[in-house]
Write a structure and sequence with these properties.
Elements (H helix, E strand, L loop, with lengths): L5 E9 L6 H19 L4 E9 L4 H14 L4 E4 L3 H14 L3 E3 L16 E3 L4 H14 L4 E7 L2 H16 L3 E8 L8 H9 L4 E4 L3 H13 L8 E4 L8 H4 L7 E4 L8 H14 L5 H18 L5 H8 L3 E4 L2 E6 L4 E3 L2 E9 L2 E10 L18
Bound molecules: P-hydroxybenzoic acid.
Length: about 375
Protein backbone atom coordinates (compact mmCIF):
# COMPACT_ATOMS: atom_id res chain seq x y z
CA UNK A 1 0.00 0.00 0.00
CA UNK A 2 1.51 3.37 -0.99
CA UNK A 3 2.26 5.86 1.82
CA UNK A 4 -0.39 8.17 0.39
CA UNK A 5 -3.21 5.62 0.69
CA UNK A 6 -6.50 7.41 0.23
CA UNK A 7 -9.61 6.84 2.25
CA UNK A 8 -12.58 7.39 -0.04
CA UNK A 9 -15.94 7.91 1.67
CA UNK A 10 -18.81 6.62 -0.45
CA UNK A 11 -22.48 7.32 0.21
CA UNK A 12 -24.60 4.46 -1.14
CA UNK A 13 -28.19 5.62 -1.72
CA UNK A 14 -30.51 2.73 -2.51
CA UNK A 15 -34.03 1.51 -1.78
CA UNK A 16 -33.72 -1.14 0.90
CA UNK A 17 -37.50 -1.10 1.46
CA UNK A 18 -40.57 -0.66 -0.76
CA UNK A 19 -41.38 -2.00 -4.27
CA UNK A 20 -37.74 -1.65 -5.42
CA UNK A 21 -36.04 -3.18 -2.34
CA UNK A 22 -34.86 -6.29 -4.21
CA UNK A 23 -33.29 -4.03 -6.85
CA UNK A 24 -31.40 -2.07 -4.20
CA UNK A 25 -30.09 -5.28 -2.65
CA UNK A 26 -28.91 -6.63 -5.99
CA UNK A 27 -27.14 -3.38 -6.88
CA UNK A 28 -25.42 -3.41 -3.48
CA UNK A 29 -24.31 -7.04 -3.95
CA UNK A 30 -22.80 -6.16 -7.35
CA UNK A 31 -21.20 -3.03 -5.90
CA UNK A 32 -19.55 -4.92 -3.04
CA UNK A 33 -18.25 -7.58 -5.43
CA UNK A 34 -16.81 -4.84 -7.67
CA UNK A 35 -15.10 -3.10 -4.74
CA UNK A 36 -13.55 -6.42 -3.65
CA UNK A 37 -12.38 -7.35 -7.14
CA UNK A 38 -11.04 -4.02 -8.35
CA UNK A 39 -10.36 -2.13 -5.14
CA UNK A 40 -7.82 -4.49 -3.60
CA UNK A 41 -4.80 -3.16 -5.53
CA UNK A 42 -5.96 0.45 -5.77
CA UNK A 43 -3.98 1.74 -2.79
CA UNK A 44 -7.22 3.19 -1.45
CA UNK A 45 -9.72 2.10 1.15
CA UNK A 46 -13.40 2.60 0.49
CA UNK A 47 -15.67 3.37 3.41
CA UNK A 48 -19.29 2.80 2.41
CA UNK A 49 -22.12 4.54 4.25
CA UNK A 50 -25.49 3.17 3.12
CA UNK A 51 -28.80 5.00 3.32
CA UNK A 52 -32.30 3.77 2.48
CA UNK A 53 -34.09 6.01 -0.04
CA UNK A 54 -37.22 3.82 0.23
CA UNK A 55 -39.00 4.78 -3.03
CA UNK A 56 -39.81 8.27 -1.77
CA UNK A 57 -38.20 11.37 -3.29
CA UNK A 58 -38.50 13.55 -0.12
CA UNK A 59 -37.02 10.79 2.07
CA UNK A 60 -34.17 10.28 -0.41
CA UNK A 61 -33.44 14.01 -0.49
CA UNK A 62 -33.06 14.04 3.30
CA UNK A 63 -30.69 11.05 3.20
CA UNK A 64 -28.62 12.64 0.40
CA UNK A 65 -28.34 15.84 2.44
CA UNK A 66 -27.15 13.86 5.46
CA UNK A 67 -24.48 12.07 3.38
CA UNK A 68 -23.23 15.33 1.84
CA UNK A 69 -23.32 17.68 4.82
CA UNK A 70 -22.90 15.45 7.86
CA UNK A 71 -20.86 12.48 6.60
CA UNK A 72 -19.03 14.68 4.08
CA UNK A 73 -18.79 11.84 1.54
CA UNK A 74 -16.36 12.18 -1.37
CA UNK A 75 -18.75 10.51 -3.80
CA UNK A 76 -22.27 9.09 -3.91
CA UNK A 77 -23.54 6.08 -5.82
CA UNK A 78 -26.86 4.35 -6.32
CA UNK A 79 -30.39 5.73 -6.89
CA UNK A 80 -32.97 3.38 -8.39
CA UNK A 81 -36.01 5.55 -9.08
CA UNK A 82 -36.13 8.29 -11.70
CA UNK A 83 -38.33 10.25 -9.27
CA UNK A 84 -35.63 10.07 -6.60
CA UNK A 85 -32.93 11.12 -9.08
CA UNK A 86 -35.03 14.12 -10.11
CA UNK A 87 -35.40 15.10 -6.44
CA UNK A 88 -31.69 14.94 -5.52
CA UNK A 89 -30.28 16.39 -8.76
CA UNK A 90 -30.09 20.06 -7.72
CA UNK A 91 -28.57 19.30 -4.34
CA UNK A 92 -25.90 17.03 -5.88
CA UNK A 93 -25.06 19.54 -8.61
CA UNK A 94 -25.10 22.52 -6.26
CA UNK A 95 -22.89 20.85 -3.65
CA UNK A 96 -20.52 19.55 -6.35
CA UNK A 97 -20.58 15.97 -5.13
CA UNK A 98 -20.02 13.34 -7.81
CA UNK A 99 -22.89 10.90 -8.16
CA UNK A 100 -22.58 7.64 -10.07
CA UNK A 101 -26.09 6.63 -11.07
CA UNK A 102 -26.39 2.86 -10.65
CA UNK A 103 -29.94 2.53 -11.99
CA UNK A 104 -32.38 5.46 -12.37
CA UNK A 105 -32.89 6.08 -16.10
CA UNK A 106 -34.28 9.65 -15.79
CA UNK A 107 -33.52 11.19 -19.21
CA UNK A 108 -33.36 14.69 -17.75
CA UNK A 109 -30.34 13.88 -15.56
CA UNK A 110 -28.34 13.33 -18.75
CA UNK A 111 -30.45 15.85 -20.70
CA UNK A 112 -31.69 19.31 -19.79
CA UNK A 113 -30.57 18.79 -16.15
CA UNK A 114 -27.21 17.21 -16.99
CA UNK A 115 -24.27 17.90 -14.70
CA UNK A 116 -20.53 17.16 -14.75
CA UNK A 117 -21.12 15.70 -11.27
CA UNK A 118 -23.67 13.13 -12.51
CA UNK A 119 -22.30 10.15 -14.42
CA UNK A 120 -24.41 7.19 -15.40
CA UNK A 121 -23.24 3.56 -15.22
CA UNK A 122 -26.72 2.15 -15.81
CA UNK A 123 -28.88 3.24 -18.81
CA UNK A 124 -31.23 6.06 -19.78
CA UNK A 125 -34.96 5.45 -20.14
CA UNK A 126 -34.84 6.66 -23.75
CA UNK A 127 -31.84 4.51 -24.66
CA UNK A 128 -33.53 1.23 -23.66
CA UNK A 129 -36.93 1.89 -25.26
CA UNK A 130 -36.39 3.99 -28.39
CA UNK A 131 -34.69 1.26 -30.49
CA UNK A 132 -37.32 -1.27 -29.37
CA UNK A 133 -40.00 0.83 -31.09
CA UNK A 134 -38.33 0.46 -34.47
CA UNK A 135 -37.55 -3.22 -33.86
CA UNK A 136 -41.15 -4.06 -32.99
CA UNK A 137 -42.54 -2.22 -36.03
CA UNK A 138 -40.02 -4.21 -38.09
CA UNK A 139 -41.59 -7.42 -36.78
CA UNK A 140 -44.90 -6.43 -38.37
CA UNK A 141 -46.60 -5.27 -35.17
CA UNK A 142 -48.75 -2.28 -36.18
CA UNK A 143 -51.05 -1.33 -33.30
CA UNK A 144 -49.87 -1.18 -29.71
CA UNK A 145 -51.48 -0.37 -26.36
CA UNK A 146 -49.05 0.89 -23.69
CA UNK A 147 -49.06 0.70 -19.88
CA UNK A 148 -46.61 1.93 -17.23
CA UNK A 149 -46.57 3.31 -13.68
CA UNK A 150 -47.41 7.00 -13.48
CA UNK A 151 -44.06 8.57 -12.60
CA UNK A 152 -41.04 9.93 -14.48
CA UNK A 153 -39.60 6.56 -15.55
CA UNK A 154 -42.93 5.19 -16.78
CA UNK A 155 -43.68 8.34 -18.76
CA UNK A 156 -40.18 8.59 -20.29
CA UNK A 157 -39.94 4.92 -21.23
CA UNK A 158 -43.32 4.97 -22.97
CA UNK A 159 -42.52 8.30 -24.69
CA UNK A 160 -39.26 6.89 -26.08
CA UNK A 161 -40.91 3.68 -27.25
CA UNK A 162 -43.71 5.70 -28.87
CA UNK A 163 -41.20 7.93 -30.69
CA UNK A 164 -39.33 4.94 -32.12
CA UNK A 165 -42.48 2.97 -32.93
CA UNK A 166 -44.43 5.74 -34.65
CA UNK A 167 -41.36 6.93 -36.61
CA UNK A 168 -41.19 3.40 -38.02
CA UNK A 169 -44.87 3.48 -39.01
CA UNK A 170 -46.52 1.96 -35.91
CA UNK A 171 -49.66 3.32 -34.25
CA UNK A 172 -50.42 3.72 -30.53
CA UNK A 173 -54.09 2.83 -30.10
CA UNK A 174 -54.29 3.46 -26.36
CA UNK A 175 -52.16 4.43 -23.38
CA UNK A 176 -52.73 4.27 -19.61
CA UNK A 177 -50.56 5.15 -16.62
CA UNK A 178 -51.26 3.24 -13.40
CA UNK A 179 -50.87 4.84 -9.93
CA UNK A 180 -47.25 4.08 -8.92
CA UNK A 181 -46.77 1.77 -5.92
CA UNK A 182 -50.53 1.76 -5.35
CA UNK A 183 -51.98 -0.43 -8.11
CA UNK A 184 -52.74 -3.94 -6.94
CA UNK A 185 -55.37 -4.89 -9.50
CA UNK A 186 -54.40 -4.33 -13.15
CA UNK A 187 -57.70 -5.88 -14.34
CA UNK A 188 -59.44 -2.62 -15.39
CA UNK A 189 -56.37 -1.62 -17.46
CA UNK A 190 -56.09 -5.04 -19.05
CA UNK A 191 -59.76 -4.84 -20.04
CA UNK A 192 -59.04 -1.54 -21.81
CA UNK A 193 -56.05 -3.06 -23.61
CA UNK A 194 -58.19 -5.99 -24.74
CA UNK A 195 -60.92 -3.70 -26.10
CA UNK A 196 -58.46 -1.34 -27.83
CA UNK A 197 -57.97 -3.21 -31.09
CA UNK A 198 -54.22 -3.47 -30.44
CA UNK A 199 -52.04 -6.28 -31.89
CA UNK A 200 -49.75 -6.16 -28.86
CA UNK A 201 -49.14 -4.52 -25.49
CA UNK A 202 -45.92 -2.69 -24.55
CA UNK A 203 -45.17 -1.90 -20.91
CA UNK A 204 -42.63 -0.81 -18.35
CA UNK A 205 -42.94 -2.32 -14.87
CA UNK A 206 -40.16 -3.27 -12.46
CA UNK A 207 -39.71 -4.99 -9.09
CA UNK A 208 -42.83 -5.99 -7.18
CA UNK A 209 -45.08 -4.31 -9.75
CA UNK A 210 -43.53 -6.38 -12.58
CA UNK A 211 -44.25 -9.62 -10.74
CA UNK A 212 -47.92 -8.83 -10.18
CA UNK A 213 -48.40 -7.37 -13.67
CA UNK A 214 -46.93 -10.36 -15.55
CA UNK A 215 -48.92 -12.83 -13.45
CA UNK A 216 -52.18 -10.94 -13.89
CA UNK A 217 -51.61 -10.53 -17.65
CA UNK A 218 -51.37 -14.29 -17.96
CA UNK A 219 -54.27 -15.16 -15.67
CA UNK A 220 -56.45 -12.62 -17.50
CA UNK A 221 -55.93 -14.87 -20.54
CA UNK A 222 -54.39 -12.16 -22.73
CA UNK A 223 -51.02 -13.68 -23.56
CA UNK A 224 -52.10 -15.86 -26.49
CA UNK A 225 -54.00 -13.18 -28.45
CA UNK A 226 -52.20 -10.06 -27.37
CA UNK A 227 -48.45 -10.69 -27.08
CA UNK A 228 -46.68 -8.82 -24.29
CA UNK A 229 -43.58 -6.70 -24.95
CA UNK A 230 -41.73 -4.18 -22.86
CA UNK A 231 -38.60 -2.75 -21.33
CA UNK A 232 -36.64 -5.77 -20.12
CA UNK A 233 -36.89 -4.92 -16.42
CA UNK A 234 -40.32 -6.53 -16.75
CA UNK A 235 -38.78 -10.00 -16.80
CA UNK A 236 -35.50 -9.32 -14.98
CA UNK A 237 -33.60 -12.46 -13.98
CA UNK A 238 -33.78 -11.00 -10.46
CA UNK A 239 -37.48 -11.86 -10.14
CA UNK A 240 -38.49 -13.78 -13.28
CA UNK A 241 -38.69 -17.00 -11.29
CA UNK A 242 -41.29 -15.37 -9.04
CA UNK A 243 -43.30 -14.69 -12.21
CA UNK A 244 -42.93 -18.30 -13.31
CA UNK A 245 -44.54 -19.67 -16.50
CA UNK A 246 -46.50 -16.41 -16.90
CA UNK A 247 -43.23 -14.81 -18.12
CA UNK A 248 -42.56 -17.39 -20.83
CA UNK A 249 -42.65 -15.92 -24.33
CA UNK A 250 -42.53 -12.28 -23.18
CA UNK A 251 -40.14 -10.29 -25.43
CA UNK A 252 -38.35 -7.24 -24.07
CA UNK A 253 -35.31 -5.00 -24.54
CA UNK A 254 -32.49 -4.33 -22.11
CA UNK A 255 -28.83 -3.28 -21.90
CA UNK A 256 -27.73 -6.51 -20.19
CA UNK A 257 -28.83 -10.12 -19.93
CA UNK A 258 -26.78 -12.77 -18.12
CA UNK A 259 -26.69 -14.90 -21.30
CA UNK A 260 -24.42 -12.45 -23.17
CA UNK A 261 -21.41 -14.47 -24.30
CA UNK A 262 -18.02 -12.95 -23.50
CA UNK A 263 -15.18 -13.78 -21.12
CA UNK A 264 -15.80 -10.82 -18.77
CA UNK A 265 -19.44 -11.81 -18.37
CA UNK A 266 -18.60 -15.46 -17.74
CA UNK A 267 -16.17 -14.50 -14.97
CA UNK A 268 -18.61 -11.99 -13.47
CA UNK A 269 -21.55 -14.41 -13.52
CA UNK A 270 -19.45 -17.08 -11.82
CA UNK A 271 -18.23 -14.72 -9.08
CA UNK A 272 -21.67 -13.18 -8.52
CA UNK A 273 -23.37 -16.57 -8.26
CA UNK A 274 -20.67 -17.80 -5.86
CA UNK A 275 -21.23 -14.73 -3.66
CA UNK A 276 -25.05 -14.61 -3.73
CA UNK A 277 -26.45 -17.87 -5.10
CA UNK A 278 -28.23 -15.88 -7.83
CA UNK A 279 -27.82 -15.38 -11.57
CA UNK A 280 -26.69 -11.76 -12.09
CA UNK A 281 -29.34 -9.30 -13.23
CA UNK A 282 -29.00 -5.93 -14.95
CA UNK A 283 -29.12 -4.40 -11.46
CA UNK A 284 -26.19 -6.55 -10.30
CA UNK A 285 -24.03 -5.60 -13.28
CA UNK A 286 -24.88 -1.91 -12.83
CA UNK A 287 -23.66 -2.09 -9.20
CA UNK A 288 -20.54 -4.00 -10.25
CA UNK A 289 -19.67 -1.50 -13.02
CA UNK A 290 -20.39 1.42 -10.68
CA UNK A 291 -17.77 0.11 -8.23
CA UNK A 292 -15.35 -0.49 -11.06
CA UNK A 293 -15.78 3.04 -12.43
CA UNK A 294 -15.13 4.47 -8.96
CA UNK A 295 -11.99 2.39 -8.48
CA UNK A 296 -10.70 3.27 -11.97
CA UNK A 297 -11.20 6.97 -11.22
CA UNK A 298 -9.19 6.61 -8.00
CA UNK A 299 -6.49 4.63 -9.80
CA UNK A 300 -6.29 7.50 -12.32
CA UNK A 301 -5.30 9.75 -9.41
CA UNK A 302 -8.62 11.27 -8.30
CA UNK A 303 -8.82 12.02 -4.58
CA UNK A 304 -11.52 14.60 -3.94
CA UNK A 305 -15.00 15.54 -5.19
CA UNK A 306 -13.92 17.56 -8.22
CA UNK A 307 -11.13 15.30 -9.39
CA UNK A 308 -13.43 12.29 -8.96
CA UNK A 309 -16.14 13.98 -11.04
CA UNK A 310 -13.64 14.68 -13.83
CA UNK A 311 -12.08 11.22 -13.75
CA UNK A 312 -15.42 9.38 -13.68
CA UNK A 313 -16.42 10.90 -17.01
CA UNK A 314 -13.30 9.48 -18.66
CA UNK A 315 -13.63 5.94 -17.39
CA UNK A 316 -13.60 3.27 -20.09
CA UNK A 317 -13.33 -0.49 -19.72
CA UNK A 318 -14.39 -3.88 -21.04
CA UNK A 319 -16.95 -5.30 -18.64
CA UNK A 320 -19.66 -7.97 -18.67
CA UNK A 321 -21.69 -5.75 -21.02
CA UNK A 322 -18.78 -5.35 -23.47
CA UNK A 323 -16.83 -2.13 -24.02
CA UNK A 324 -18.25 0.70 -21.94
CA UNK A 325 -17.56 4.41 -22.29
CA UNK A 326 -19.26 7.57 -21.11
CA UNK A 327 -20.65 9.93 -23.76
CA UNK A 328 -18.94 13.21 -22.75
CA UNK A 329 -21.78 15.25 -24.26
CA UNK A 330 -24.34 13.97 -21.70
CA UNK A 331 -22.49 11.66 -19.26
CA UNK A 332 -24.79 8.82 -20.25
CA UNK A 333 -23.28 5.38 -20.84
CA UNK A 334 -22.84 4.16 -24.43
CA UNK A 335 -23.87 0.52 -24.84
CA UNK A 336 -25.77 -1.86 -27.12
CA UNK A 337 -29.35 -2.94 -26.39
CA UNK A 338 -30.45 -6.60 -26.46
CA UNK A 339 -33.89 -7.83 -27.46
CA UNK A 340 -34.53 -11.04 -25.53
CA UNK A 341 -37.27 -13.58 -25.03
CA UNK A 342 -37.87 -15.23 -21.69
CA UNK A 343 -37.84 -18.98 -22.33
CA UNK A 344 -37.86 -22.17 -20.28
CA UNK A 345 -34.31 -23.45 -19.82
CA UNK A 346 -32.79 -26.47 -18.14
CA UNK A 347 -32.70 -24.76 -14.75
CA UNK A 348 -35.71 -22.45 -14.77
CA UNK A 349 -36.42 -19.47 -16.98
CA UNK A 350 -33.62 -17.97 -19.06
CA UNK A 351 -32.99 -15.19 -21.56
CA UNK A 352 -32.73 -15.99 -25.28
CA UNK A 353 -31.16 -13.09 -27.20
CA UNK A 354 -33.13 -12.38 -30.42
CA UNK A 355 -31.29 -9.27 -31.60
CA UNK A 356 -28.46 -6.95 -30.64
CA UNK A 357 -29.26 -3.33 -31.45
CA UNK A 358 -26.15 -1.13 -31.88
CA UNK A 359 -25.02 1.37 -29.25
CA UNK A 360 -26.42 4.81 -30.04
CA UNK A 361 -25.74 8.07 -28.21
CA UNK A 362 -28.85 9.70 -26.76
CA UNK A 363 -29.94 13.01 -28.27
CA UNK A 364 -28.70 15.96 -26.19
CA UNK A 365 -32.24 16.56 -24.88
CA UNK A 366 -31.22 20.08 -23.89
CA UNK A 367 -27.91 19.15 -22.22
CA UNK A 368 -25.24 21.85 -22.38
CA UNK A 369 -22.62 20.22 -20.18
CA UNK A 370 -21.14 22.74 -17.73
CA UNK A 371 -17.51 22.39 -16.61
CA UNK A 372 -16.46 21.37 -13.10
CA UNK A 373 -16.04 24.79 -11.57
CA UNK A 374 -13.39 24.60 -8.87
CA UNK A 375 -10.26 22.50 -8.28
C1 LIG B 1 -36.44 4.23 -12.76
O1 LIG B 1 -37.26 4.74 -11.95
O2 LIG B 1 -35.69 4.94 -13.46
C2 LIG B 1 -36.37 2.77 -12.89
C3 LIG B 1 -36.75 1.94 -11.85
C4 LIG B 1 -36.66 0.56 -11.98
C5 LIG B 1 -36.16 0.01 -13.14
C6 LIG B 1 -35.77 0.83 -14.19
C7 LIG B 1 -35.87 2.22 -14.06
O3 LIG B 1 -36.05 -1.30 -13.26
Amino acid sequence: VPATAEDIKVGLLLPFSGVYAALGNDIEAGFQLGLEQFGADSGATFEVIREDTEVKPPVALGRAKKLILQDKVDVMAGIVSSGVLGAVRDMVHGAGVPLIVANAGNDEATGAACSPYITRMSFSNGQVNRPMGAWLAGQGVQKVFTLAPDYAAGRQMIDAFTTGFTAAGGEIVGQEFTPFQKTQDFGPYLAKAQASGADAVYVFYAGGEAISFVKQYDSFGLKADLPLYGAGFLTSPLYVNAEGPAAEGVITALHYVPTIENAENAAFAKAFTAATGRVPSEYAVQGFDTARALVEAVKAGATDRDSLANALRQVRFDGPRGTLAIDPATNNLLQPIYVYETVAGEAGLTQKVLAQLPAEADPLNGCAMPAVTTN
